[in-house]
Amino acid sequence: MKGHSRRQFISSCLYLALCGSPFILQFGCRKKDKSTSLPDISGHENDQPKTDSGFEPAYLSLHKSGELKKRGEELWNMMKSCELCPRMCGVNRLEGNEGFCRASSQLKISSYHPHFGEEKSLVGKRGSGTIFFTNCGLRCVFCINWDVSLEGKGDPGTIKELADMMLDLQKMGCRNINFVTPTHYSAHILLAVDMAAAKGLRLPLVYNTCGWERLEILKKLAGIIDIYLPDFKYSDGKMAAKYSSGSETYPEITKAALLEMHHQMGVAKPANDGLMYRGLMIRQFLLCICSWQFYCFGLNSILV
Ligand code: SF4
């Protein structure tokens, strides 16, 4: 970012997304992947769970110092009058109330499994260790995971169970832990990562978000999240309001969020093994509107 203004940075991102890497299409990146079953791994001794030489996940030192737990608790307390996402609806989730996102303090998860439909640099041979969280604060009319994000499909779980899921995914050989739609459960996630780190979690963490994130919350994730994987859905607030439940602030908030993510993690570069361990990857979406149906395609991801 040195030597570049914010305007230049955002312009570059959009230009690259639309023109720079045009036909690396990754249709349905957010779609439930039909190829999520674990492939036959017999005979792949060289593909055992491993991290790139010298890689240490960002959260490990904060776990050791107690800062990770402290930040998780700070986020947890924010649910008293919830301000975890830009809706800032002020609901007391700790008393069991549900916010605009339909989430209370009860963690709810739709599924977790190795996922092979993500970007190649996140998948490797054993998949990205994806955890799909139920509910969402953005609530887009075209959501591909509408049954999970809008209709609340999923099962209640505990923070310990979430930590165990991460450890399971690590045992399966996944290359990272990929939190899909994490924003409203950011407190649960940090507390679970703290627990899992104590039991040996060492995989990079991917924050797979709609991009509509508050700076205050992102600053609490600094030094914890290794890879930011945000969408950039709208540059027009009116469109955002129309198709994402009145979120007219989406463009300005998301641009600021992307800059903060970039500030924290810098340029994303695959390591020598072709896998991503750190950085910011932005997903640009292409929305097609027919008279009776929406189609939403993940157009591509760009590294910035
Ligand atoms: S995370 Fe949910 S409850 Fe909290 S501010 Fe956002 S919509 Fe409201």
Q: Which CATH class?
A: Alpha Beta
Quantity of strands, as a count: 8
Distance between the termini: 10 Å
Helical proportion? 25-40%
What is the overall shape?
globular
| Mean residue pLDDT | 83
How are the secondary structure elements laid out?
Blueprint: H1 6-20, H2 59-65, H3 67-78, E1 107-115, H4 120-123, E2 128-133, H5 146-149, E3 155-157, H6 159-171, E4 177-180, H7 186-198, E5 205-209, H8 215-221, E6 227-232, H9 237-243, H10 250-265, E7 279-289, E8 294-303
Parallel strand pairs: 2-4, 4-5, 5-6, 6-7
Antiparallel strand pairs: 1-2, 1-3, 7-8
Helix pairs in contact: 2-7, 3-7, 6-7
Description:
This protein is of the alpha/beta class and 304 residues long. It has one domain (64-303): TIM Barrel, CATH 3.20.20. Helix content is 32%, strand content 18%. The protein has 10 helices and 8 strands. The protein has helices spanning 6-20, 59-65, 67-78, 120-123, 146-149, 159-171, 186-198, 215-221, 237-243, 250-265, and strands at 107-115, 128-133, 155-157, 177-180, 205-209, 227-232, 279-289, 294-303. Strands 3-1-2-4-5-6-7-8 form an 8-stranded mixed β-sheet. α2 (59-65) packs across α7 and α6 packs across α7. It starts with 5 loop residues before the first helix and ends with a strand. Iron/sulfur cluster (SF4) is lined by residues 82-85, 87-89, 91, 93, 99-101, 103, 137, 184.
Name a few traits of the molecule:
single chain, 304 residues, alpha/beta, TIM Barrel, eight-stranded mixed β-sheet, 10 helices, globular, binds iron/sulfur cluster
